[in-house]
Design a protein that fits this description.
The protein has 530 residues and is of the alpha+beta class. The chain is 48% helix and 14% strand. The strands form 5 sheets. It has a 7-stranded mixed sheet with strand order 5-13-12-7-8-11-6.
């Protein structure tokens, strides 16, 4: 541990405090944390990222070190969705080993500390390459083992692995509360692009007024609201002139209430078009309104079907379109009901668009927009699922949801980059290969040793225990990155938060003195601090 009370030591103590707290959750014997919540039932969890982001230390300088450690943990979780505890354990052990050198005067001046940081970064790159060498592609059984290892429950772990495998690496899996039944874990799977939207009229339904189900469908996508029937009538005439006529779907943003009356809809369904060869034809058309979708999401739909997007933001209008195969996309099956529409078997090449959206998501800082982009990618990848979690108590439900979130993310990460030996064994073997004199030796052994400690000593790790290559790699990279910079800190600028809190409480109590109002209540927090 850092010695003395100088600035660098206080920062290091804060970082190591977080590492020790989060490290207690690692492995099958990992302990749980009980977290205080204002006016809410306190959750019980051993999810590392939850423990990390709820940590605040009383000493403001130590707390700065703690928040730096939290940042490293959050970065791993943000990118891979798992690995928070492993990152914290590696970083904490590395920081300890560096301070052993500092306390023994092995490192004598600031220049050497900076050079040591460079050495840490250099060795981290070597370790990452060795992790990749030990990695193998994840098969179906490997994915199940990864999920079960993370979930610590075979039945739920296998269910998660099955869902993740079906929706694919870009698929979106939502973990939600199960309000339908009290205790069970249920899954709902939707393969195909699915969005909020419905038919313009129940008259378009061909399944007992509940759904419209079409196969081999040509699709036109437009974000221009329809304010008159003329645009649709002209569109029907154009569709009737196509050499190859399939069922036709028009997806649009919305319309004025007066645009689609009952007589007009019936007229559309009974319209007969004279074709160029003199024959008559009645086009099959289905109008789908989706006012909840943004222009970007509608463009995703067009990309999925390989349709040219009729974008009003670029000056395009539906009345200007003359339907040709250049404008129309294609899908093997379309299902539209009262709430959603789903498209499967689109012929569009979506890989490039997914790559662009993924890059945009990685650069995005706002979590709301990041999650929205993730859902767009999942829709393009044609895989979405919901896992609903039930439990006897709120604490148990929260605990299970956290574990399922970790298991889901670990399984998806394994699909991306493969798997390595689990339980810290991969990093321990690399540590032995590098030797005791390597700056990362103790840090790489730390996850295995912490798992053993949490399990009560001797613990035999089964061969089926696997870790995601991506999670293991990021844990090493982020831990080494943050410690390489943290050890060079010698100046800290912080506020005396305890004094500020005391002043705040004094002012608040003074304003409510002599009243029966509870100054702690949420509705009374908008006060004048003078």
């Amino acid at each position: 541990m850092p010695e003395g009370n100088d600035t660098r030591s206080r920062v290091a103590r804060g970082a190591i405090t977080v590492a020790d707290m989060v490290g207690r959750t690692l492995g099958p014997g990992g302990r749980n944390a009980l977290i205080y919540k204002n006016y809410k039932s306190p959750p019980i969890t051993n999810d590392g990222v939850t423990v990390a982001r709820h940590t605040t230390l009383e000493d403001e300088v130590e707390d700065l070190g703690a928040q730096v450690m939290v940042e490293a943990c959050m970065k791993t979780n943000e990118t891979a969705g798992d690995g928070t505890s492993t990152t914290a354990v590696i970083a904490g052990a590395l920081l300890r080993s560096v301070y052993e050198k500092i306390n023994k005067n092995i490192i004598g001046n600031e220049t050497n500390v900076v050079l040591l940081g460079d050495e840490i970064q250099k060795e981290a790159k070597i370790v990452v390459e060795k992790i990749k060498e030990r990695s193998r592609e994840a098969g179906a059984d490997d994915l199940k083992n990864v999920a079960v290892t993370s979930m610590r429950n075979e039945e739920d772990g296998m269910a998660i692995a099955e869902v993740v495998k079906k929706v694919g690496v870009h698929g979106y899996v939502s973990i939600e509360d199960n309000w339908y039944t009290k205790y069970s874990v249920d899954t709902e799977l939707s393969l195909g692009m699915r969005h909020l939207g419905t038919y313009a009229s129940p008259y378009f339904s061909n399944n007992n007024n509940k759904e419209a189900i079409w196969v081999d469908t040509q699709i036109l996508v437009c974000n221009d609201p329809i304010d008159s029937p003329n645009a649709i009538l002209q569109l029907i005439k154009d569709l009737g002139q196509l050499e190859v006529v399939n069922k036709n779907l028009v997806i649009f943003n919305g319309y004025e209430n007066t645009a689609f009356s009952k007589p007009f809809i019936v007229g559309i369904l009974n319209t007969t078009v004279a074709r160029n060869k003199g024959e008559s034809y009645r086009p099959h058309i289905l109008l789908v309104k989706c006012p909840a979708l943004t222009s970007e999401e509608l463009e995703d739909v067009a990309c999925f079907c390989d349709a040219k997007f009729v974008d009003r933001n670029k000056g395009m209008k539906l009345t200007d379109v003359r339907c040709t195969t250049e404008w129309l996309g294609f899908a093997k099956k379309v299902v539209v009901d009262e709430d959603n529409f789903s498209i499967s078997g689109g012929r569009g090449k979506v890989d490039e668009r997914i790559a662009v959206l993924t890059e945009h998501m990685n650069l995005e800082k706002d979590m709301m927009f990041k999650n929205k982009t993730k859902k767009r990618i999942s829709a393009l990848a044609a895989g979405m699922a919901i896992i609903r979690v039930g439990a006897a108590t709120e604490q148990e439900r929260t605990f299970k949801k956290d574990k399922m979130e970790d298991a889901k993310n670990a399984t998806k990460a394994a699909m991306e980059e493969g798997v390595v030996e689990g339980g810290g064994q991969c990093l321990m073997e690399i540590a032995e290969e590098l030797g005791e004199n390597n700056i990362l030796y103790k840090a790489l052994r730390a996850p295995y040793e912490r798992i053993m400690e949490n399990a009560g000593g001797i613990f035999i790790i089964p061969e089926t225990v696997l870790d995601s290559t991506k999670v293991t790699r990021l844990a090493v990279q982020n831990a080494c990155s943050i410690i390489a910079k943290l050890i060079t800190v010698d100046i800290v600028i912080a506020e005396k938060r305890v004094e500020l809190l005391d002043k705040f409480e004094e002012i608040v109590k003074k304003q409510f003195r002599g009243t029966e109002t509870d100054w702690r209540a949420d509705e009374n927090q908008d006060i004048n601090l003078g």
